[in-house]
Specification:
By secondary structure, the chain is an all-alpha fold. The protein has helices spanning about 10-20, 25-35, 40-50, 60-65, 70-75, 85-105, 105-110, 115-125, 135-140, 150-175, 180-190, 195-200, 205-220, 230-245, 250-255, 255-275. The longest helix is centred in the middle third of the chain and has 27 residues, at about 150-175. The model has no long low-confidence stretch (mean pLDDT about 95).
Length: about 290
């Protein structure tokens, strides 16, 4: 039984996770990888996020990333490891995190006691994470914690993100949603990635998207207009609740007061980063 207020862990995740994710939208990541000879956006994403797993092939990344078309992944893996080593990819990603956070948060925030406090709280929460059946989290948990507070915070945000993400994939499997059905139904909530972003970055074609819509309609989860039905809304709510249960440990470990404070700090950083253009304006939505 949880000792925290309802959805406290989810709220904390939603405040902290974007500070990890903004690096993948940053021109700094492309710059770092281009200097090492990796210029394709899909290739650098698979290399930067998947490097903690080692020089793996397409199968491991398709499995752990879940919502990418395997054909797209296979065009870039394992070929990218002939261009850059996993260690070099991780170093490039960390350099990009450093420059990105400095740019979108500002040097005053980077050097603030609040940043050091957030790093300590997030790392404390991550102590409660578990490795079993969580491959992306477990791989990142083997990486060293950076010394600088803003990078330690980013590292901890990475651990918390991948821990929740690994659990969420288990929930998607249990709900019978394949990769594209998961994306389509999430987009239908109005909180997911816009279709044009999905089609541009995940390797799916419009025909694939339309077929997934029809499968969800056939299950009574979407209506004729592509909106979630009552059953679809209940399914998505149940997915988040299942994910919350599987992701409760780090936030229970941190405790109610710590979770509230980390959420407060994360929201403040997030507001500053968003105002500085850390995320594409058209990233989310149904259109």
């Amino acid at each position: 039984m949880s000792t925290l207020p309802p959805r406290a862990g989810r709220r904390c995740h939603n405040a902290v996770n974007p500070l990890h994710s903004c690096v993948y939208f940053s021109p700094d990541l492309g710059k770092e990888f281009a200097e090492l000879g990796v210029k394709d956006e899909s290739r650098l994403y698979f290399a930067s996020r998947g490097a903690a797993l080692g020089a793996v092939g397409a199968g491991a990344v398709t499995a752990t990333f879940y919502n990418f078309n395997h054909e797209l992944v296979a065009r870039h893996l394992p070929a990218v490891w002939a261009e850059i080593t996993p260690a070099a990819a991780l170093e490039a990603r960390l350099r990009a995190a450093d420059s990105t956070l400095r740019r979108v948060l500002g040097e005053e925030v980077i050097a603030s006691p609040e940043m050091a406090e957030a790093a300590a709280l997030a790392l404390r929460a991550a102590e409660g994470c578990t490795r079993h059946a969580r491959p992306l989290y477990a791989a990142h948990a083997d990486l060293p914690v950076p010394e600088q507070p803003h990078l330690a915070f980013w590292h901890a945000a990475t651990l918390l993100r991948e821990h929740r993400g690994d659990g969420h994939l288990a929930a998607l499997l249990a709900a019978g949603l394949d990769p594209l059905e998961a994306l389509v139904s999430h987009t239908a909530t109005g909180k997911g990635m816009a279709p044009r972003w999905i089609l541009a970055t995940r390797g799916w074609r419009r025909a694939d998207w339309d077929a997934a819509v029809e499968r969800l309609r056939g299950r009574g989860l979407l209506d004729a207009e592509g909106e979630l039905t009552e059953s679809g809304t209940a399914l998505r709510a149940g997915l988040e609740e299942s994910t919350d249960r599987m992701d409760a440990a780090p936030y229970e470990h941190l405790g109610e007061e710590g979770v509230a404070r980390l959420t407060e700090l994360g929201r403040g950083f997030l507001s500053t980063a968003a105002s500085a253009g850390a995320f594409p304006a058209d990233l989310l939505g149904k259109g």
